[in-house]
Amino acid sequence: MTYTTDSTQSFIASLQSVNEVSTVSKLFKQLSADDQLAILWYAYTECGKSITPAAPGAARLQLAAGLIEKVKTMTYTEQLQFMRDLVNRVDTPDTRAYGVLSVNTKLGFWYVLAELMTQGIVVPVPSNYQMSQDVQRLLGTISSLDFGQQITILRSAVVAMGYDPLA
């Protein structure tokens, strides 16, 4: 195999891309539960022009329908606590129900939650939430990435949430 400057540059660019996704994913997991929820909210609503179309199409949302319906019956306070419990991997019946969903279904679940947030059915980001500089930087980085990188970061974020007793 012949190595050229172009192939070397392409290889280096792909390594940088993988490193950037890995770095953003690690930084995301270091944030507080509320900051992680805010990033998901903004990623699905602000960056959603490119992110959200893929989520429902790839998911088997019928597997999450019962949990989505349950979330819709919760008060805003209960919804926010449920989402915090997902991020913090607290062991509850609802976080277990989420924890056993497939990765694509988890992506679709958050897409549906974001849609329900914009409709006022699910609690939106609290009005008194102050986005930290870390969150602003991370969101800026996520929105500058290509579609595939954005999905990889979201997938990494949502797959770790919930409680799976077998994990």
The CATH class is Mainly Alpha
Overall number of domains: 1
- Largest sheet, described in full? none
Which percent range describes the beta-strand content?
Answer: under 5%
Number of strands: 0
Radius of gyration: 17 Å
* Count, helices: 10
Structural class: mainly alpha
- Do you know the CATH architecture? Orthogonal Bundle
CATH H-level superfamily: Orange carotenoid-binding protein, N-terminal domain
Taken from the alpha-carbon principal axes, the silhouette is globular
Arithmetic mean pLDDT: 83
Order of helices and strands: HHHHHHHHHH
Report how far apart the termini are: 42 Å
Provide a compact summary of the structure.
With 167 residues, this protein is mainly α.
Note the topology:
Elements lengths: L4 H26 L2 H13 L2 H4 L2 H5 L6 H9 L2 H13 L4 H7 L3 H16 L14 H12 L2 H13 L8
Helix pairs in contact: 1-10, 2-6, 2-8, 2-9, 8-10
Pfam families: Carot_N
Keywords: Antenna complex, Chromophore, Membrane, Phycobilisome, Thylakoid
GO cellular component, one term: phycobilisome
